Amino acid sequence: MEPFKQAMIDKYKDGPDGWAIRGETIHDWLDQHLKGKEPSVPEKWAPWIDALLDQQFFDGAEVLATEYRVVDPLKSCAGSFDFLIKKDGYIQIGDLKTVSSKRAVAARKPATAQLGAYASMLSRQGIFPDIAITLVVGPEKVKLIEQSVGTCLEAWEEAWGKFQATQPDF
């Protein structure tokens, strides 16, 4: 990552309005919501959560997993995806991304390689998603990015290959 980009991430991460607390709060809310609970909506983050509720993406979906941890022991790599649902006969693996503004919703790119990593790790358990979803939410706006799992797996393998190329030989 370029130093400027890392500096901007660090600058806006912490504090009561930082992206870390925003992401954690909205992810926790979604986790509880998908489990059928009625979590309270923190007033500060209501424009994000209300936008998610208005989207109706999860209506009619069977929730298979939320905040699910997966691992690839051969790569010594792990992570947690945000949701796995079955909707209209398709298994969909997804990741929620929170952003600070409506403009940032439009600009946010999909989590292609990240979703590929999750799908790859999930396949080790015999579960093969059909569709990968990046669900981007900002204040009063949501963008749903749907991708083929194959595209995501290819991006993951490419990213892993680049990472491996930078590792020292032992």
Gross geometry: globular
Quick one: biggest sheet? 5 strands, mixed
What's the helical proportion of residues? 40-55%
Distance between the termini: 25 Å
Spatial strand arrangement across the major sheet:
1-2-3-4-5
The secondary-structure element order is HHHEEEHHEEH
Question: What report would you give on this structure?
Answer:
A 5-stranded mixed sheet has the order 1-2-3-4-5. The protein has about 170 residues and is α+β, with helices and mostly antiparallel strands. Helix 5 crosses helix 6. Strand 2 and strand 3 (about 90-100) form a beta hairpin. It has helices spanning about 5-15, 20-35, 45-55, 100-105, 110-125, 150-165, and strands spanning about 60-70, 75-85, 90-100, 130-140, 140-150. The longest helix has 17 residues, at about 150-165. The chain has one domain (about 5-165): 3-Layer(aba) Sandwich (Trna Endonuclease, Chain: A, domain 1), CATH 3.40.1350. Helices cover about 40% and strands about 30% of the residues.
How is the topology of this model organized?
Layout lengths: L2 H11 L5 H16 L11 H10 L6 E11 L4 E11 L2 E9 L3 H6 L4 H12 L7 E8 L2 E8 H17 L5
Helix pairs in contact: 5-6
Question: What labels describe this entry?
Answer:
alpha+beta; 28% strand
